[in-house]
Amino acid sequence: MMSIKELIEESKVIATYNDRIREIVSKMRENNQWVVPVIKEKEVVGILSYNDLLRKRISPESKVINLMSPLLSVSEKDDIQKVVAKFYTAKARAIPVVDDKKRLVGIITRERLLSYFLSSGEFAKAKVREYMNSPVITVNAEDSVARARWLMSNNNITKLPIMEEKKVSGIISARDIVDRLYSSGGKKKSSILTEEERLMSLPVKEIMNYPVITAKGDDSVEKAVETMLSKKISGTPVLEGEYLVGMFSGIDAITIIAKKYQMEIPIEARLTSELKQGNMKALIDGILERYLSRLEKLTDIINFKVTFKEESKSEGKKLYQVTARAVTKVGDFVTKDSDWDPVTAVRKAVERLEERVQKELRKMETTRRKQKAEES
């Protein structure tokens, strides 16, 4: 199986711990780079992405170390299957490539990966409607930017179609929000806060992009991928006639490749018979996939299991206990939580699981730094 050398590009933007967020966001915007490797003493120690910038709001004058995520990377010695697996499970937009000493070799973007598979004919015969995401999370034109930001952060997505009278009138991305949030460098803190409040209260129609580039359900995946690459977009609404029926993104295209390699997201969810009914299973599966994607950006996941138990009943309602377990490269983590709403219960349990993994990684990094300091 081929190596990944022909997929590697130079990372035009590289950050250090002490760089200012405002400066890095400006460079990300200028170079159209979604993910930035963070370097310390020639070693890649983390990444900064638009997702990080969207989820956690800090001052534009803050340092990168306060916002970066743990390192998600591939080795220059990995084969293409390992790269696809990383993009598939982490839903990554770009991944740094490192050598055996964790020094930066370059970066692989989702666009470069899609271009490679497009030229290889891997998307032949596949139709957009077979791989699109449906139903679609949307916002109305009059909804606030704050709501759009919340929906993106909580659902691990970066684009939202904007609806008016049941039709798509525009689209808003994480980048649209982030670029505006972090463009207020040099201002006083009170002025920054006032500007943020103003932005968050705006209706999304004020900053949306239009006209919208769309696809049809009957379009070939080849055509959709070609459009996304030529227009430099990460995803597109899918229409049947004038009505929105799905969203198709680069990750959906990579899913086709993952299935050819027989990759599966390592999720096991043991639901009660009642929770398997209606759309409840789809809601729970959606939450688990999103949080698995977030965990994969922290460390390699070997197994991810969630079980449900009915604890008690009160006035016809059931209290659900959720146990979440992740077997990872850095340890085995288990959390439990309960709620009358099963969806809330599972979200709380996996959020705590993510926090536990982050805490362990911070602890390991602190230990590593101490050992390195003692050696020097």
UniProtKB/TrEMBL annotation:
Residues 8-64, 67-123, 132-190, 208-265 form the CBS domain. Residues 343-374 form a coiled coil. The keyword Hydrolase does not apply. Keywords: CBS domain, Coiled coil. The keyword Nucleotide-binding does not apply. InterPro entries: CBS_dom, CBS_dom_sf, Diverse_CBS-Domain, RHF-like, RHF/RaiA, UCP036983_2CBS_MJ1404. Pfam families: CBS, Ribosomal_S30AE. It comes from Stygiolobus azoricus. This is CBS domain-containing protein.
